[in-house]
């Protein structure tokens, strides 16, 4: 239900978020759980989702950028409440600010260790470091050939009281493709990276490898901590294997809008930019006031589904910056009536997964892109 007077709204069901956390904990009973709240919690709102996860007993938060981590601390999430791990650093840090905010820092290579140690000396605050191994993703992380040098350098700094290596970790390339040969190869490479570090004297608090698909499908990869993003937001990271309900998950975000206009038009009428759709006959058109500026993919033009009343309609022609049109086929809902763009599917409405399929992408991208122009409404939260 859209709040009074709003053009559009994303409803964030925090009770569903808690239920998803419980389902994930059941899947990974021996591991701690990190709530990954990067990218504004995949579009769901970093702070409210982080607070809800804390209320549900989560003690680890994960962010990509330092700005994301610092914003959570600035909002009052104290180190005693949650460790925050941040993993995407560029030269310039800001490492000193991260140390003052007691943010855990991922280190993938020598430049980061050098800059971090400069910041430690400048602030007098020792760092909590998670050393990241590239076990095959070929993105962040330290290559196996460079791993011994990085581990040894970190241990020297640890002996000098400058840091503590609290984590050893890596990230999967294809955990969402069961049976992909990279999975076993990465697990072996991770075991080897751990073996070297532990033999060299690292005593990590947490070893972690699993993202959402690995949390759901690869119990061997759970180690001490699982880092869940998408599944926590109730979407399936492995739609070919199962939908959210198959894993005990419920989608957290629903996107609704209000019809801006309903009008009758003659047959043969071109619709939206480029006239990629022509009405097949006399019909009614409905104008939905959401577009690619709100994060709907333009690639879903002619394909994205919505529900009005109990019926599905399809985006007719191009999705524009701020609006798109549906052919109502002679139906006559009224301006102001609610359009369900996607939801949890429990009322038969389209889901983010349907929009992903309609635009050749993944559900991750659909929810993450829902933009700042769409107000969020939080329901079902424990924090009031
Ligand atoms: C985004 C991210 C995750 C979470 O991935 P999901 O598949 O959404 O669970 C975990 N670890 C790292 C390093 C990430 O970048």
TrEMBL record:
Its EC number is 5.1.1.1. The active site is at residues 38, 273. Keywords: Isomerase, Pyridoxal phosphate. Pfam families: Ala_racemase_C, Ala_racemase_N. Residues 252-379 form the Alanine racemase C-terminal domain. Substrate binds at residues 139, 321. Pathway: Amino-acid biosynthesis; D-alanine biosynthesis; D-alanine from L-alanine: step 1/1. CDD domains: PLPDE_III_AR (cd00430). The modification N6-(pyridoxal phosphate)lysine is found at residue 38. SUPFAM superfamilies: Alanine racemase C-terminal domain-like, PLP-binding barrel. Its cofactor is pyridoxal 5'-phosphate. It comes from the Bacteria. It catalyses: L-alanine = D-alanine. InterPro entries: Ala_racemase (IPR000821), Ala_racemase/Decarboxylase_C (IPR009006), Ala_racemase_C (IPR011079), Ala_racemase_N (IPR001608), Ala_racemase_pyridoxalP-BS (IPR020622), PLP-binding_barrel (IPR029066). HAMAP family: Ala_racemase. Belongs to the alanine racemase family. Catalyzes the interconversion of L-alanine and D-alanine. May also act on other amino acids. NCBIfam families: alr. This is Alanine racemase. The lineage of its organism: Bacteria, Bacillati, Actinomycetota, Actinomycetes, Kitasatosporales.
